[in-house]
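ok so i was messing around last nite and threw this chain in just to see what happens. nothing serious, just curious
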Amino acid sequence: MKKVIAYILISAILFSTMEVALKTAGNHLDPLQLTFLRFLIGGVFLFPFALKEIKKLGTVFTKKDYTHMLLMGIVCICISMVFFQLGVDHSNASTAAVIFCINPMFTMLFAHFLTEEKMNRKKLIALGIGILGILFMVNPFHLSPGNTLMGASFSVLSALFFGLYSAMGRTSVRRLGGLTQTSISFIMGSVVMLPVLILFDRPIFSGITVNHLPMLFYISIMITGIGYLLYFLAMGESDAATASVVFFVKPGLAPIFAVIALGEVIEINGFIGIALIFVSSYINLREQKKKNGKIEKEIEVKEGFNEEINPK
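result:
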């Protein structure tokens, strides 16, 4: 259990520094360039661990699997994470961070149509509270210094499409493995971004100096690589609901890092928004735990039934 707590804590800290790091790097590098590089490097970093998972699970890929992971990569890297970087660039890091934490609520919504996980009254309440939290966090009638409606809109779109990416992943994660489909989808999505960069005459490696390398290393290897690795290790040692505590902790930690590192000021409406998103995340976490408990009970009943029919 100590190992799981360590994985979750370190992963939560890394993910909570993401917006501050991206805000800092975004002042020097092109947003599309930064998104391309961090997920290409992060995906390659995760790939050796994915190979171990493939060997462990004995995974055999089909053309449908590759197409599925390609679509996941396009949704995540080319759409969600581009919106995410633009959201960070056009709003306060604390605002972008808290808004992005609503993505599990959108995952529930998309999972209703893509999986057997159907929406219920509690999930709808969680989604409604989360959206209310966004409204308080942004306060469109009186924007805090540093925030813009454009930035908030980009952040909401990012969370929406990341929710779709996560729901797509749920349809295949048990067979392909979390690390495997994450690593491959990151790499594939980055490769798709390459011709987009060329087409729109965006920089790929140009403009990067020695001074930018430490921050690029931190964003690509530490946050995108090690952050996701520890998240999946926590999931492997426990379950998906326990590992998702990472995203429950982030709305509280990320604004603190933004205040310390960037000198941002969070007004009273921001604290109300953070509190509402905490409540929304808690309801979602409880529903996830309840679902996992039902699945485990069904497996135990099925195994007991099989032992009765085929005793050893």
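not much to say yet. Confidence is low (pLDDT under 50) at residues 299-303.
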